[in-house]
Write a structure and sequence with these properties.
- It is a single chain.
- With 122 residues, this protein is mainly alpha-helical.
- The protein folds into two domains: 61 residues; 41 residues.
- Helix 1 packs across helix 4.
Length: 122
């Protein structure tokens, strides 16, 4: 059995909490996906790539007000979709460096998630 992907597990937990606060149908409609597909995901099934894209986009949109590191990782995965696996680390590093450079040039403070991800991909 493959080890759990922290990004997928963060999305799974957010979906589970959203369903507890609302309803399975309402959350599935917001993603958009079928209620049964969402239930299976929450119960631990590995989603298809297209479903994971929908879940990731929902997760990023939902979390944007309080943007934790896991959300940033999910957003980067969406942005880098289609990039060959062997090029993902380099592309991630480049995107993070562009963001850091933009903050520096704008004389704005980098978000904490950006600082942490830069250290991880330094």
């Amino acid at each position: 059995m493959p080890s759990p992907n922290p990004r997928v597990e963060s999305i799974r937990e957010a979906a589970r909490l959203a369903v507890e606060q609302s309803s399975l149908r309402a959350v599935a409609r917001a993603i958009p996906m079928s209620p049964m597909g969402l239930l299976h995901f929450i119960q631990g099934t590995q989603p298809y790539a297209a479903t994971l894209r929908k879940l990731s986009a929902w997760f990023v949109a939902r979390e944007r007000a309080d943007f934790p590191e896991d959300t940033a990782r999910a957003a980067l995965a969406v942005l880098l979709e289609g990039v060959p696996e062997k090029a993902v680390d380099g592309a991630t590093r480049e995107l993070l460096q562009v963001l850091a450079r933009t903050h520096k040039q704008s004389r704005t403070r980098q978000p904490r998630w950006l600082e942490r991800l830069l250290k991880d991909h330094g």
